[in-house]
Structure of DUF2797 domain-containing protein:
Amino acid sequence: MHTIHRGGFVSRELEAHVMQPHWLYIATFANGVHKVGTAADTRKWGRLAEQGAICAHYVARAEDGKVIRVLEDSVTEQLQVRQAVRSSAKAAALALPIDTVRIDAATTALATCVRTMIEPAVDEATYRVVEEPWRTAGFRDLASGNRLAYPLDITTGTHGFTVDACIGQAAVVRLNDRGAMPDRTHDDASFVVDLHELKGRRVTFGDYTSELPAVQSALF
């Protein structure tokens, strides 16, 4: 689907999906890394939530999804903005201090640069430039709080926690049993779990606890 605008055979179903209206966006994650991406009209807001972005800007819209994908490639080629960010990197960054003011400003600046770069000529207007910001729920709260990277291998053993929030495929959780923490200094801590690691694995629900080693929050 990501190369359909470059030619080649596609099924009718896929072509129908791509030919519906699409949006071009610039998204930023907790580590400050930017990404350029596309979203179908019907997935406009859900797409950014799934991606795990903490803030974003929609910068263009076209009735033809192929046009948006050409723009996506142009942004990557001319501004070196990537089109993918690893799930593990997104999750790890959520356990570090997040300067939401700086990230928000950087996203706005990049989006403005992209809009200027892709502004169509009047006689070539197959798409339109837009200005629509987006921020994840609780965006400002990400600048505070005591979040730690979950120190256990989530793909094996037993784990006991309650999910407080999800940002993409990462979950911010709190332990069900504080007694499972040997370091009582972090009794008020939340943990970031990369749920992407559970894809393709069977999960059995039950009354479990997480036996954690001593942990230390990130200082820098």
Notes: Residues 35 and 82 are 5 Å apart (CA to CA). The chain is about 25% helix and 25% strand. Helices lie at 12-18, 44-51, 65-79, 87-94, 100-118. Residues 4-140 form one domain.
